[in-house]
Specification:
This protein has helices spanning 8-19, 25-31, 36-49, 81-92, 118-127, 168-171, 194-200; strands at residues 4-6, 68-76, 97-102, 109-115, 135-143, 161-163, 185-186. Helix content is 31%, strand content 18%. Helix 2 (25-31) crosses helix 3 (36-49). The longest helix is centred in the N-terminal third of the chain and has 14 residues, at 36-49. The protein is built from 7 helices and 7 strands. The chain is of the alpha+beta class.
Amino acid sequence: MTTTALDRIDIKILNELQQNASLTNVELASRVNLSPSPCLARVRTLEKLGVIDRRIAVLDPAVLGIGVTAFIQVKLERQAQPSLESFTRSIDRLGEVMECYLMTGDNDYLLRVMVSDIEALEDLIVNKLSRITGVSSIRSNLALKRISHKTVLPIDTNRPVQVRPCSSSRRLDRPAKPQYDASPQARIDGGMNPETSRILRGDGQYPSSLP
């Protein structure tokens, strides 16, 4: 596949847009020392290549009352391709799941979820995640405090960057979730029935379905 080299101006454009995607073309051109017309042409090329995936607004979860972040480990009964695809489709329908990774190690998936409170987290685990076909166990840890939150990728203007064009069909498959760094975690405790509390703390396993 043909690769395209990004020069220093391209990288400056990307870094400016990562900091503030609402910049007008005139403002952006001024910041990277270009005239508006070639600046716009470069931005459109970066979008066509798939380097600029989309432009979004980053919301403040605390202001919106979404105050609980948890990291959930999920293990499937089997790792056959149909099971993995079924799980992926189910996860995509859950708005609380901000990120989902297929992992090496003892657990198959790592999820970062955001909810309003512990009760909402319990509902997500008990009534949604545990009912996904093929799930054999769920373990959860609660983040105490967000230490770092970055959406800016580290692009160095002092080294060349090679990119491969991204087809539109491939871009549709990307997860539509913002980046979020992991924070220190603590066990969830109290405020729910003993069995649920035991599972949420990571002491036990959920069955694949509940009675």
